[in-house]
Amino acid sequence: MDLARPVEPARAPGHDASDRTLPAWTYFDQEFFELERERIFMRSWQLVCHANDIPAAGDYHTFSLLGESAIVIRDESGALRAFHNVCRHRAARLLDGDRGRCERHITCPYHAWSYAFDGRLVGIPFKTQYPQIRDGDYGLVPIDCTVFLGFVFIRFTSGGVDLAEGVAPMEAEMRLYRIESLQPLGSVSARRCQTNWKNACDNYIDALHVRVAHRGLDSLVGNTYGMEVRTESVYRLWGSMEDLPRAGLSVRAYREVLPPVEFLPEQYRRMWLYYLLWPNLTFNLYPDQVEFLQFLPLSPVETLVRDAAYGYPDERPAMRTARALNLRINRRVGFEDKDLIERVQAGVTSSSFTEGVLGRNEVCLRAYAARMRATLPVSRLRTAPPRGTVAACNERMS
Ligand code: FES
Ligand SMILES: [Fe+2]
């Protein structure tokens, strides 16, 4: 296996832990999980959907994360808006389901307060009972919202790095795929995995398992699998298609039927390219389609894997077939990965296991662990601090 261009990861100050994984306790500890919620997830940009998932005024997507719920909706002027999915009257959740369309207003199912798509409170039944409410009061509470190449991101806690800064190292390459004009090939879907969210991320950037555990994927791109650390937050992996005798039916058919995508530079027409963006988002860039895959923590030991696929308009029968075959190959990869990350979760809680070992070429895993050690220094401790002290230890070590 050719692991191209190894890059030395950033190391936690004064502590050389780069040849070890994060300690096992950080994969199931409730207090550490609460730190992750506050310091990582509430402050990070999270992808909700593509702008083309909600093309018309009133189209919306919801997004839930660790007790928070958001709405992203297109307003009458065509702008995208994000709000907490919470009624200002008595806190009822406003919109249900992953997505939908509001006619004219967002209307609360409890007492029918209604809001314009730009968040203004525009209707209150029995309005005279609320003399304390003046015009302009009690609009929906906005959330930071930004768009990167057509993908809509939100952030529950303001402040911190601009999304543009974080994604800059992958922007030029992603632009090649004309991502802004992609259309959804289906809906955003989600499935639960019984594992800590970091196991899903670790697995995504673990190159060594492809040969062992993904026979289909390996027979397509495994011989050329490479990876690099672009920055402490952006990890890139790739493989180019080769004519390997060990390929199964779907892989062989995909390779044969995939038509050239004229707008892609030559070297990308037969490449599968992957990016992981700290902390929990990935983009899979195939010649025939683009997917995002997002690992959302539900609890220290449960993760929601959320994904969706997008394609540019291409009516060629060969492209339709290639997309279906890609789906078949990757559905299998998904099942295989689910098994692996649940298998690891079952092991990290064992009293026999304290931490794992990283190979020299596992540059992405090393950098990812270093990123976590820098973000939450308490994760440098090889065993959990006494109960009730994780947050205080983290402060002391910061
Ligand atoms: S809680 Fe929404 S209208 Fe009362
Ligand atoms: Fe995998």
Plain-language structure description:
The protein is globular. 27% of the residues lie in helices and 25% in strands. Helix 5 (215-221) packs parallel to helix 6 and helix 6 crosses helix 7 (317-348). A hairpin with a 4-residue loop joins strand 17 and strand 18. The chain is built from 9 helices and 20 strands. The protein has 2 domains: 20-43 and 170-378, Naphthalene 1,2-dioxygenase Alpha Subunit, Chain A, domain 1, CATH 3.90.380.10; 46-148, Rieske [2Fe-2S] iron-sulphur domain (Rieske Iron-sulfur Protein), CATH 2.102.10.10. Strands 12, 13, 14, 15, 16, 17, 18 and 19 form an 8-stranded antiparallel beta sheet that branches. The protein has a 4-stranded antiparallel beta sheet with strand order 5-4-3-6, with no helix packed on it. By secondary structure, it is an alpha+beta fold. The structure holds FE2/S2 (inorganic) cluster (FES) and fe (ii) ion. The site of fe (ii) ion has 5 residues, from helix 7. Residues 87, 89-90, 92, 108, 110-113 line the site of FE2/S2 (inorganic) cluster.
